[in-house]
Write a structure and sequence with these properties.
- The structure is a homodimer of 131-residue chains.
- The first copy, chain A, is mainly alpha-helical.
- Chain A has one domain: Arc Repressor Mutant, subunit A (Orthogonal Bundle), CATH 1.10.10.10.
- In chain A, 56% of the residues lie in helices and 11% in strands.
- Chain A contains seven helices and three strands, in the order αααβααββαα.
- The longest helix of chain A is centred in the middle third of the chain and has 14 residues.
- Chain A is globular.
- At the A-B interface, helix 1, helix 2, helix 3 and helix 6 of A face helix 1, helix 2, helix 3 and helix 6 of B.
- Chain B binds a DNA duplex (30 and 30 nucleotides) through helix 5.
DNA sequence: TAATGATATTCATGAATTTGAATATTATGT
DNA sequence: ACATAATATTCAAATTCATGAATATCATTA
């Protein structure tokens, strides 16, 4: 098999595999958008559907990629599953690359949608009662 | 075609395309290794061959990906082509992700190889004369 | 335990990426 | 012009990725 022929190359590149893996997970606009949604703390999947206007199954697939990489973690609360970022330094990565591109990132929470999860309903109720 | 059905989704994700593109380019260990080689300034391709122990054609392919993305630029000097990083902030990105992984990045310049490009030959000559 | 809401998984297909092999290009020296 | 050194490009096969459709799971409520 002559595996040893490439041993120098493999060992030279192998230490960068872990970094490359993180970059691969980040190399999809929907996954970046999801992380932006999680910037201010944990959110349930229904929020992501509402904010992004994407089908549930699609979002769930992208969540699976993020989850399996360890970048996000999930927590079940009744019917809803809440996701949060494991290591907030991932936002530093997004920040730097955002500065490099120079493209303004939209506020993913400004979409004006509302989902029907308990937390949203409570928030709406509170807002209505307050206003 | 019903293109408008997905318009909300497309517009929600589209602003992150540029970031995703950069991450995609970085999502390969050989390309990260090349950038590490360029950390201290421009280097010729022969250096990368020497340091990484990879075939020339392979390195050239990865250089093309980096070059076409705009992350690196090239400059010809006689027989050799020297590459340099366009925006040093790309190293901030590598730094943060490196901290997240916690994996020590090897010094890609410690390999002890020497190529036969004019600069290497001059350096060797100078070193020998100095020592 | 059956129905329902929220979310996840499986499957299939087309598109993109990886990477080795061969070949081309470009500049230099004779 | 020709040979050579340094680097780039093309091509093709294998693998991986993106994504839509359908279905499954898991917790809750009746």
């Amino acid at each position: 098999m002559n595996l040893n022929i490439m041993s120098a190359a493999i060992s030279a590149i192998q230490p960068f595999e872990a970094q490359a893996q993180i970059f691969k997970v980040l190399s999809h606009p929907a996954r970046i958008a999801i992380l932006e949604i999680l910037r201010d703390g944990e959110e349930c999947v229904c929020h992501m559907e509402a904010y992004l206007g994407l089908r549930q199954a699609y979002i769930s697939q992208q969540l699976a990629v993020l989850r399996e990489s360890g970048i996000i973690q999930d927590r079940r609360d009744g019917w809803n599953i809440f996701y949060r970022v494991t290591d907030p330094r991932i936002f530093e990565v997004l920040d730097v690359v955002q500065r490099i591109t120079g493209i303004e990132v939209p506020d993913v929470h400004q979409a004006g949608f509302h989902c029907t999860c308990p937390r949203c309903m409570t928030e709406q109720q509170v807002t209505n009662e307050e206003g």
